[in-house]
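Q: Given only this backbone (440 positions), what sequence would you predict?
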């Protein structure tokens, strides 16, 4: 009674939590990975509370296999670490523990409070520091969406629901905890998360949660570029990239993350190319095949590079330096907003720079290209260009056959290329390049 009163006075309460038994929600503890169970059991044996929390609980309730398991506890990092032989305290702003058991890494974090009143914020309301331990109620309240604030107790197989997440899951709704505008101001990335998670889970964004997004979209600019990039990567590799980008556009959020997307999608060829690239990526992710972020960003920005390259060729710049310059210009413009890592841009450049080399199908050059380190990725990129109608299908087909052919057939293919109108071809290619080789 007194406890409840104090909680209410402190404004921590949004109603008593609901403890929902397994008979009602259906998730058995056997659905957790062995490492997750071990971590929770070890914490409990040491006298601490331990719950699976966040995305994993939400996904299990929806019948989706979770990517990873997070555990929340009332133990402090320095109390957690000694319980496991391979555990590391990580994070500077907020310390948490990575427990490694076999192949798995379980992220264990101490209940955290979001003391909205005292947290340090910027002029837009963005929280700069919130590094306070708290109770489980406080921990639930600082989470972003009701469906992300569910706690699963492996000891009792109960789900603890502080904010009506179970009901929202049933209604298939993403709903912000608390006042949506305030929560987006505290952390604008939550707007991107709303879109990404709704697309991934097939949930609708609840009306009040959705309403402020368009108006607040420009706040994405205030978020450090590296964080926007991480979120963008998650979005693109979610297996629902097409749906996500469509939704981002619908909400006016894409300007902050991919400023040139509108320009690209306005050209029919660009739109086909990007749409194909995203559809292909989603297919690969869903088939659990690997996807290269470099390939994906190279695809997203290709038509931008292409436009810049063509403009330079039209000014009579020599093709190869013109392409180099075009790549620089586009990457410089993008990296301001989107901190694409250096490793990634290096690969993107390689893939782009290889594209004109596919036009050369005589002499020793095709062999050199075939042996190049990024050949496979560059060929896949060429295939995408062909499928979108940017270069002739015949060019892609030739390279497909060339790769598969034995030595003899390869040289025959080359001969066919270089006999007869060899010189003319060469000249034509050169002229073609000067007039805009990029499939002009
Ligand atoms: P995913 O399936 O992509 O992993 P997730 O919801 O698990 O989705 P994580 O980034 O792994 O996303 O975050 C784990 C949990 O931490 C979330 O479920 C949510 O409770 C909380 N969380 C993450 N980001 C935020 C944020 N920006 N604001 C508030 N809570 C957050
Ligand atoms: Mg997660």
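A: Predicted residues:
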């Amino acid at each position: 009674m007194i406890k409840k009163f104090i909680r209410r006075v402190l404004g921590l309460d949004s109603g008593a939590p609901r403890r929902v038994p397994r008979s009602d929600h259906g998730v058995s503890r056997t659905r957790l990975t062995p490492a997750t169970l071990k971590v929770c059991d070890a914490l409990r044996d040491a006298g601490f509370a331990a719950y699976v929390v966040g995305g994993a609980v939400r996904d299990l309730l929806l019948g989706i296999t979770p990517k990873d398991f997070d555990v929340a506890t009332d133990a402090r990092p320095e109390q957690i670490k000694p319980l496991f032989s391979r555990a590391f305290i990580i994070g500077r702003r907020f310390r948490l523990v990575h427990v490694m058991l076999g192949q798995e890494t379980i992220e264990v974090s101490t209940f955290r409070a979001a003391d909205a009143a005292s947290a340090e914020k910027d002029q837009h309301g963005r929280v700069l520091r919130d590094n306070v331990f708290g109770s489980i109620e406080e921990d639930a309240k600082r989470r972003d969406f009701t469906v992300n604030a569910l706690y699963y107790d492996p000891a009792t197989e109960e789900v603890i629901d502080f904010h009506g997440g179970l009901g929202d899951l049933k209604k298939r709704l993403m709903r912000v905890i608390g006042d949506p505008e305030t929560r987006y101001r505290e952390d604008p990335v939550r707007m991107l998360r709303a879109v990404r998670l709704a697309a991934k889970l097939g949930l609708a964004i609840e009306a009040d949660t959705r309403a402020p997004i368009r108006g607040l979209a420009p706040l994405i600019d205030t978020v450090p570029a590296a964080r926007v990039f991480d979120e963008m990567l998650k979005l693109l590799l979610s297996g629902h990239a097409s749906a996500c980008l469509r939704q981002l556009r619908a909400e006016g959020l894409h300007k902050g993350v991919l400023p040139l997307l509108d320009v690209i999608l306005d050209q029919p060829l660009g739109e086909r190319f990007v749409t194909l690239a995203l559809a292909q990526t989603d297919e690969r992710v869903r088939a659990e095949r690997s996807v290269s972020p470099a390939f994906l960003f190279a695809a997203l920005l290709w038509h931008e590079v292409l436009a810049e390259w063509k403009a330079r060729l039209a000014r009579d710049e020599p093709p190869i330096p013109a392409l180099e310059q075009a790549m620089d210009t586009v990457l410089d413009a993008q990296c301001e907003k989107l901190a694409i890592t250096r490793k990634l841009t290096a690969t993107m450049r390689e893939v782009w720079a290889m594209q004109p080399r596919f036009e050369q199908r005589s002499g020793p050059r095709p062999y050199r290209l075939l042996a190049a380190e990024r050949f496979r990725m560059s060929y896949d990129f060429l295939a995408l260009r062909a499928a979108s109608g940017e270069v002739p299908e015949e060019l892609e087909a030739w390279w497909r056959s060339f790769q598969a052919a034995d030595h003899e057939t390869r040289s025959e293919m080359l001969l066919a290329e270089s006999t007869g109108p060899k010189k003319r071809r060469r000249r034509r290619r050169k002229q073609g390049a000067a007039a805009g080789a990029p499939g002009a």
